[in-house]
């Protein structure tokens, strides 16, 4: 293990009925002027918008709204939110949606307190100096944004998609009611599962030694995701499958299963370059890239892949070599993606080789990426080419 | 899963060098008048006392001291600490020691802000109204007190040992340097391992349904404890074994592996009655009681025990019935205790049947105990009798 500091102060409310029971009391801790941020309007169709607004107005809260947050949330939308918060003297931002809405809200929260364009924080040219309090109501099991301080923003002017955050942007509270994910479309459920699984993989592949407990915790999350995705797809209103996936998504990226290790994160960096140009779903991009990355790096430490096979996918190791088990692990990952209907190749999104050079160059513009294996521009090019 | 609220705001510093690098900055967030609480003086022998005092005094901090905290910390000691804090206008309590020192410090922290005797909070006759800020420097991997809000205090006047806590008593920060556990005596290392394993068992056995991820997380902690105890006993200065055990102890009781389920906790309740009379080490008492409790309750849900065998102890299930696997699980638990030299029977502490009735009656004085199986007075009597 590396020496580490860990702190995650978010108050997490899980399960049905929690919004009705506790939302008003949590909001009123921070004030009575609230900016409600949401996406394309699904929360209006499924009744969540009305429920939340009734609770807020019933508690004497004045609400402002920022709607239409994009799946890959854009800097221009963040700027709109910052303007509203400043003009209306907002006390609290309440994000109602999936990871994109939450990430956008974190950027707004930092932007309000930042003297300059908040993009500087994402472009590593500035540091957050504070943030408005943020609360969230989650509607999609995927990014873990409900219990961490990070987020990803896309700048369409510069064609950059970058992650950023600060100790200030942990949500003060997050409400995770699995029933709010019943109406998530099938493809979004798939992308969400791909995203949370990708977070586990990013933690699982590293070079930090003596991380036995972390390894087992991550394996636990991986096998639970794999075991529950199909049930949620087959029966969208299966409370327990939805609840389990939602809980996996939170645990996969709240810092609790990966303390003291430096995860890989190369696949996320590569995916960001693909969606910065093609605006594809993040989870879909990750599902495409991961198996190819795995093939490319497995010789670095085949026994790590063998553990993935035996501990997370339950493969009986008897009579199999480490290399064979490593290959089986990758096959299992591919099989899972296929079974749930995740995309397999960049071609599935009509992406050809026209921007490979640009994407490879951009992915490494802050230096080599990855921890399990350090990747330079050529490596990224090769992996993305294999994924065409 | 049950609906739940989870929040754990403690800032955790793990690894060697963290005290030197960050203790002063953390302490100074809360003030310059600090009560340092510690136990029997082992921190003076191993140099930790001098290190901490040098850092505090170098930062301009005025220190007060409460030493001699007992292994089962006593209410009278808590009262002394409360008096010092009030008289000296202490800003922060810094607990340097194992779970007993930390638990005592939590009681002091609540006591300072409580209008009445702090024992009322433990006796369920009052609720905490606040607490002085508390920081900890851990010297024993065992109780998890470094990252939770609870603690156990013994009232020798009434012969009661009761747990209590409040949202105010999460440590603000905790420093966990595995090197500070090198000099822990062998028996204390054993008791610590028994205690953290017991916490896992308390979480593992319950009646809450649909807790697949929690199950796997708990199994991960159990197998890591079992795998590392012997290394720490064989080579007390094995940094990685010490580090892994310390990390297991924190994760076993910081709330992260058991969200949304109601653990059993009957064995803890029974053990408290034994040590309230006989003042035996908590971990030793738990190691004695658990196998007998397991035998007594296994018919409630043998498949839970079978999972313990296959998932945590790596037993190959082929050709074995659920009942056989359940028996193997209990045998594995006994084998582990035996291998590390934990006590096996109450007789090992010269405890006979003289107080069985009293202990059984006291254990259920707030009502039946346990979740996996509800236990009344007769059940407790039977289990303790079997453990003689």
Explain what this protein looks like in three dimensions.
Two copies of one chain form a homodimer. The first copy, chain A, is an alpha/beta fold and 388 residues long. Chain A has two domains: 11-180, 3-Layer(aba) Sandwich (Rossmann fold); 185-386, Dehydroquinate synthase-like - alpha domain (Dehydroquinate synthase-like, alpha domain, Up-down Bundle). Helices cover 49% and strands 12% of the residues of chain A. The first copy, chain A, is built from 15 helices and eight strands. In chain A, the strands form two sheets. A six-stranded parallel beta sheet of chain A has the order 1-8-5-4-2-3, sandwiched between helices. A two-stranded antiparallel ribbon of chain A has the order 6-7. Chain A binds chain B through residues 1-18, 22, 209-210, 212-213, 216-217, 219-221, 223-224, 227-228, 240, 243-244, 247-248, 251, 256, 259-260, and chain B through 1-18, 22, 209-210, 212-213, 216-217, 219-221, 223-224, 227-228, 240, 243-244, 247-248, 251, 256, 259-260. Strand 1 (4-14) of chain A pairs antiparallel with strand 1 of chain B, so a sheet runs across the interface.
State the main characteristics.
homodimer, alpha/beta, Rossmann fold, 6-stranded parallel sheet, two-stranded antiparallel sheet, Iron-containing alcohol dehydrogenase (chains A, B), alcohol dehydrogenase (NADP+) activity (chains A, B), ADH_Fe_C (chains A, B), ADH_Fe/GldA (chains A, B)
């Amino acid at each position: 293990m590396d020496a580490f500091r860990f702190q995650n102060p978010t108050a997490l409310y899980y399960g049905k009925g929690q919004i009705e029971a506790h939302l008003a009391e949590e909001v009123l801790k921070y004030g009575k002027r609230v900016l409600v941020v949401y996406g394309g309007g699904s929360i209006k169709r499924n009744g969540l918008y009305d429920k939340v607004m009734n609770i807020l107005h019933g508690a004497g809260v004045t609400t402002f709204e920022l709607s239409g947050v994009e799946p890959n949330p854009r800097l221009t939308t963040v700027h709109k939110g910052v303007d509203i918060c400043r003009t209306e003297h907002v006390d609290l931002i309440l994000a109602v949606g999936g990871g994109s809405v939450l990430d956008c809200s974190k950027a707004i929260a930092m932007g309000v307190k930042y003297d300059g364009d908040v993009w500087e924080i994402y472009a590593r040219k500035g540091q957050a100096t504070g943030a408005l309090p943020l609360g969230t109501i989650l509607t999609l099991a995927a990014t873990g944004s409900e219990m961490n301080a990070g987020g990803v923003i896309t700048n369409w002017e510069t064609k950059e998609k970058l992650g950023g955050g600060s100790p200030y942007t942990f949500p003060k509270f997050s409400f995770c009611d699995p029933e709010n994910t019943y109406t998530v479309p099938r493809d979004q459920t798939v992308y969400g599962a791909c995203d949370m699984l990708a977070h586990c993989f990013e933690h699982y592949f590293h070079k930090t030694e003596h991380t036995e407990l972390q390894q087992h915790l991550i394996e636990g999350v991986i096998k639970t995701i794999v075991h529950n995705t199909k049930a949620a797809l087959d029966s969208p209103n299966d409370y327990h499958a939805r609840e389990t996936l939602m809980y996996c998504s939170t645990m996969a990226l709240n810092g609790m299963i990966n303390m003291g290790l430096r995860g890989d994160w190369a696949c996320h960096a590569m995916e960001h370059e693909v969606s910065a140009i093609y605006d594809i779903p993040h989870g879909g991009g990750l599902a495409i890239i991961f198996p190819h990355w795995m093939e490319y790096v497995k010789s670095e430490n085949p026994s790590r892949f063998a553990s993935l096979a035996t501990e997370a996918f339950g493969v009986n190791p008897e009579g199999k070599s480490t290399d064979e088990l490593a290959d089986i692990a990758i096959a299992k990952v591919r099989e899972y993606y296929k079974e749930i209907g995740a995309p397999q190749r960049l071609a599935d999104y009509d992406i050809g080789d026209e921007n490979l050079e640009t994407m490879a160059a951009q992915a490494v513009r802050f230096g080599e990426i990855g921890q399990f294996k350090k990747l330079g521009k050529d490596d990224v090019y090769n992996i993305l080419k294999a994924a065409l």
